Amino acid sequence: MQRDEGGGRSIGKRSAAAILLAFFGVAASGEQAPAPLHFLADNDDIARASPPSSVSFYVVGADGGLADPVAVSTGGNGMAGGYFGIDRLVVAAGSEEACVYASNAQSENITGIDARERRISGLFHGSPKDMRLARDGIGLALGGNTLYATFSGSGNIGAFKIQPGCKLEYAGEVHAQGLSGGTAEGLAVRGNILIVAYGDGSIGSFDVSAGVPVAHDDAQYAPGTREDFNPGAVDITRDGRYAIFGGGSTASEVQVSDISSGKITAPKVYKLGPAWGADSVRLSPDETVLYISNSAGGRVTAAFFDKTTGAVRQGCTSEPLRGYYTKFNYIGAVATELPSGSGGILYVPEYDGSGKSNIGMLRFTSTSTGCTLAETAASPVAATSGSALLSIGVYPPRPF
C-alpha cells in the first residue's frame, strides 16, 4: 500500500478470503507470502454471567476496512460500562508474539490472549484485596515488560510482569488514592514514570523503576477541577517529557503537564472548541496530532500538537458520527490504523448499552489552512452482538 503526501491511498485489491488467510498466517493461492499481521481487537465488556465476555478480532484490510469480527471468549465478565478514560484492552508487540490483554471488571481479573493462535494464555489476578467488584472498570497500561492495572474495587494499582506465551506474573501493588479519596481512572507509563488521573479531579505520578509503583507524593488538583474539568484520561509523549490529560467538561479541553523533572508540574490548559467533553486522548504515532474523543457529543476532535513545547492548538472536529443518539449514546477511545505518521484511518468504539455497539471510522486530512476529520463511507462496522464497546486496540501498535 502506498500513500501520497496528502494522506491519500493507492490500493491494490485483494479478496476478503485472502485477507482472512493472511491474518491466520496462511498464504492464499498465487501470493508470495502472508501479509503482516494487522488486526483490530476490542474488549466486548459483556456483563451477563453466561456466556462469558469476549475479545473480538477484526482483520484490517488494505484500505483500512474491517472484516467481520471473530470473538474469543475471555473466560470472565465485564461491566458494560465505567469510566471513559480507562483502557480496558491493550495490545503488546513482541519480537515473536502478539499479545492482547483485556480486563474483566465483574470477574476482577485480566485475560491474556495469544492473537496469532487466538487462544487464551490465562486468567490473571492481583492480590486477594483486589477481589472486589470493580464497578468503574479495570484500567490497563503497558510500560516496557510490565502491565499495570487499576483495580477500582480495591483502589490498588497492580504490576504484572509479562512472561513468554502472553502470560502475566503478579509482582505487587500499591494503594493509590486521589486527594479527595478518588480511585485511579486513566493511567499511562513512559520510562520510569507512571501518570494517573483520579476520579476526584486530582492527578499524580509514581516511580516504576523497580516495577511496582512508588508514589512521588506530587498529587494535585487539575486546573478547573471544581469548575468545569474532571481529568480521566492520560497520554504521554514518546520522550516522556509531557503528560496530556483529557476529561469530562462542557467543552473540548485538554491539559498538558511538563514531567521532564520526573514529577508532575501544574498543567497548562488548552481550550479546543465547543464539542462536549475530552474523555479520551491519543497522540498520533508521529506526535503531530492529538485525537480527542468527545464522548458525550458523539464527535472526534483532532488538535495540532508540538512535541517540543507541549503546546496544543485548535484543529478540526468531526460532525456527530452516524447513528449518534439513535443507535449509540457515547464513544470510547480512538485507535489508529497505522503505527506511523498521523495514523491513517481512525477507529472509534460506539457504545450502546443495549448490546448493539459499532466501530466508527474516520479519515483525518491535514490542509494548508487546518484539517478535516470526516467519517468514511464504510462506517460504522457492526460489533459482536451483546458488546458494550469503549476500548479497542490495533496491531501493530503505536511504537510508544
Commentary on this structure:
- The structure is a single chain.
- The protein is an all-beta fold and 400 residues long.
- The protein folds into two domains: 1-35, no CATH class; 39-395, Methylamine Dehydrogenase, Chain H (7 Propeller), CATH 2.130.10.10.
- The protein is 2% helix and 44% strand.
- The protein contains one helix and 33 strands.
- It has one helix at 16-23; strands spanning 2-3, 9-10, 39-43, 54-59, 70-73, 89-93, 98-104, 109-114, 119-124, 138-143, 146-151, 156-163, 167-175, 184-190, 193-198, 202-207, 214-215, 220-221, 230-236, 242-248, 253-258, 268-271, 280-283, 289-294, 299-305, 312-317, 330-331, 335-336, 345-351, 358-367, 370-375, 381-382, 392-395.
- The strands form eight sheets. Strands 27, 28, 29, 30, 31 and 32 form a six-stranded antiparallel β-sheet that branches. Strands 14, 15, 16, 17 and 18 form a five-stranded antiparallel β-sheet that branches. It has a four-stranded antiparallel β-sheet with strand order 5-4-3-33.
- The two termini are 23 Å apart.
